[in-house]
Amino acid sequence: MTPLPEPSTTAAPPRPASRPGFVRREWLPIILFVLLALLPFAAMLGPEKYTLSLVTRVMIFALAAISLDLILGYGALVSFGHAAFLGIGGYAVGILAAHGFQDAALQVPVALLASGLFALLTGAISLRTKGVYFIMITLAFGQMAFFFAISLSAYGGDDGLTLASRSKLFGLSWLENDRFFYALVLALLIGCYALTRAIVASRFGRVIRGAKENPVRMEAVGFSPFRYQLAVYVISGMICGLAGVLLANQAEFVAPAYMAWQRSGELIVMVILGGLGSLHGAIIGAAAFLLLEEILSGYTEHWKLIFGPFLVLVVLFARGGLLGILAKVRGKSGGGR
Amino acid sequence: MTLSLFLVQTLNGLQFGILLFFIAAGLTLVFGVMDFINLAHGVQYMIGAYLAAMFTALTGNFFFGLMLALPSALLFGLLLEFLIFRHLYARDHLDQVLATFGIIIFLNQAVKVVWGAAPLSVPVPEILSGTVVLMDGLLYPVYRLALIGSGLAIALILYILVSYTRIGMLVRAGATNAPMVSALGVDISRLFMVVFGFGAMLAGFAGAMVAPILSVEPGMGDNLLILTFVVIVIGGIGSIRGAFIAALLVGLVDTLGRIFGPFLLRLIMDPSAASQTGRALAPMLIYILMAAVLFFRPAGLFPVRK
Amino acid sequence: MAGTPAKAEDFAKAAKPALALVDLNKAYGALKVTDQVSLEFAPGELHAIIGPNGAGKTTLIHQISGLAGSDSGHILLDGQDITGLPMAARVRKGLARSFQITSIIPGFTGLENVALAVQARLGSSFRLFGAVSREERLNAPARAILETVGLLGRADLPAGLLSHGEKRQLELAIAMATEPRVLLLDEPLAGTGPEESAAVIALLRKLKGRYTIVLIEHDMDAVFALADRVSVLVYGRIIASGTPDAVRHDPAVREAYLGEEGL
Ligand SMILES: Nc1ncnc2c1ncn2[C@@H]1O[C@H](COP(=O)(O)OP(=O)(O)OP(=O)(O)O)[C@@H](O)[C@H]1O
Ligand SMILES: [Mg+2]
After folding, report:
1. Which H/E stretch holds residue C32?
2. What's this model's pTM, rounded to 2 decimal places?
3. Beta bridge partners of C48
4. How far is the CA of C67 from the centre of ligand 1 (A)?
5. Nearest Cβ partner of A15 from C124, C158, C177?
6. Strand C19-28 to strand C31-41: parallel, antiparallel, or no bridges (unpaired)?
7. What radius of gyration do chain B's Cα atoms show?
8. Which of A252, A282, B208, B235 is 20 to 30 A from residue A94's alpha carbon, by CA?
9. Which residue(s) pair with B133 in the sheet?
10. pLDDT tens digit string along B238-267?
11. pLDDT digit string (tens) for C179-238?
């Protein structure tokens, strides 16, 4: 590898991480999705129900993490209340189901609308603030949603509410089938990945990325970042709301714990663990987080004693997350292009 | 609905506000001076409570327990600072959030391992037990009064320290313009250690003081931490005065809102709807308060940095 | 000296100024940084504002561009009062600026930096689909401007990796891409080496006449070579304003400012 930034005709950018890949073909996400698509076949050989349920959960959290990465990785908006959207999506399913509306055809639009509205209201206030204020105010709005859910005594209050069954799909009970549900979640994950990928590469995405790096410069060329940031916050919230719908269906249960601030923290952890600002890093991070939790908790009930310090070490020594490590390894082995 | 109920609840709100102030004071200075976001400040409070519980049990006396808990909490805070935090000052907020989140996860679990998952209780010290009659039909626990009193005293001391001592001046200057202070030749990292240790001790003190009236349990600092954030944001980051006023405001609004919200709502709704809406709204009140403050003043009531 | 005809008198008499400042004031606490500043900038003129360090030049540019507010007074762009408008709105009305401390988007390539400004002008920035990096509607004009400033060869490099002088040029390119009528340039030569600064001066000469340019600069050779008129700002106050020659010989200026520069 020649580190010299000489102008070259091919102009390979020296820091791929800072250039969200538009034209570049990315193999990693494709490999990821192919693996996820093949997994159910492998799962048939082992404990299928367990495997499918675990990986479905991974994919649902990956979806939530992608939505967070969209604003965190590309907009530097450190939302510490993102779990609220998981809860809003979940409660949209739970509450509608409790009133006999079990069809996803109604639940999903309601969930999207509710999360979008919540994002619009809280975003309009939060985005007026910067830095630490933004972190804390999103955290506080997340808590607000959490306490609101607890106060919903008609819907289980603290204990949450159990769904009688998974949602119907245009009257059909297909979601009850774990394989079908897996496929649906995977399809939605791929769809939202493609959507967010397109967004960050679009005109709109360029404004978001620019405002992340230098907001004053953005205003000096004539952009008011606020409107764009609010829009991307709403988009992100809606995608996370969709993840909430899926999570409620996967667990067949919704509870205020969906919105606990620790959950929001975990979402951030997932995004960072995988590698900030790459979208598929969020998928890897979600998988790493949940699998680590699964494995560690299999060994000891005090797995958090290991996980906490692990996080600290990641921050101190492994900036760039797993993708960063991967890039470093590839760089050392002579550039794997 | 009586005057005495109102007074009792006002006192409770004050006491809660003072508790919040103890935790917020250290946090707001650490934010202000080092621009460091420390989620682990809430576990300092928890550690303080556990230490007080442990030492009280060991010595059989709450005051001895308190005396031992305070320096221990200070040491513990300094240890954390030395091991982890000082490597994070130059990092961005996201890294700080993440690493201190890791510390919370660890410590919440660690106290379970060390002291067990079941809540501990600390007896109220003999001299401060019992109640006093504040006025006709108004009984109030002595211990809670002592808490309020000591809180006001410490707030006053803190105010004097920050306003009139050299170190207080440096802290204020650091909150306004940290690069300037270090340019003046002040060792800003030592200054921060002092501020940090002091903040850790205050939070630990808060934990120790509430040990006799709340149950001491893992995760007890988590929700309080977020309320503290609300306090700091409302007050303006880096402002002790802002933290004090906002803490009392939040304490009062939260406590009174839970009790009187439903009563007030009854004026415009039928009783059952009022009590239900009231219960739903009450825990959200302070967040609504915060949103309203930030909507009009995005840098809080007493912005320090301009 | 400059080959431009001395039209300073014409500029001074221009019926409708491109940009006018009327009794502008600003104070930071007790410090008056802008003190009753009134100036008119004629269409197409290159008007240099000089003054010692801390005179308030940057602050004045901040006020005109909208990055800083004004305590009182008015700013008129083509006769229209823009005093209350936010920065972005002023840019859309044709007022662009560069910064004394380079302000670019380091993670974007040079081309992207300029294309971003083109995009700001063309609008449709809520478009969520379509790879923006391949949009010729944005890239073609951006490349043309990069060619003008002589950066086309470095267009695909992340802007953060450009040399200091190249970043200054890029900043000019970004400002030009917003298609302004008035350009506010805050020390475009600051920190550039001799070769780079010759390039920037040549560029400014090329741009002269195309835009109304307000130029802040410490490099006196450059100022007197380029400017149609010069105003001198000392402690927030305009103490002289006129042709380069008149200003150079103004006794007040010599005393307050130029003396130490040895002109
Ligand atoms: N945000 C601020 N707060 C307080 N004082 C300020 C601020 N910005 C500038 N000043 C002060 O205002 C005065 C003018 O500053 P300004 O940057 O406008 O000067 P300048 O003429 O551009 O100087 P230079 O030639 O060094 O760039 C200086 O004394 C400076 O210290
Ligand atoms: Mg300047």
Report:
1. strand C31-41
2. 0.89
3. C215, C230
4. 14
5. C158
6. antiparallel
7. 20
8. A282
9. B139
10. 888 899 999 999 999 999 888 887 777 777
11. 999 999 999 988 888 888 888 898 899 888 899 999 999 888 888 889 999 999 988 889
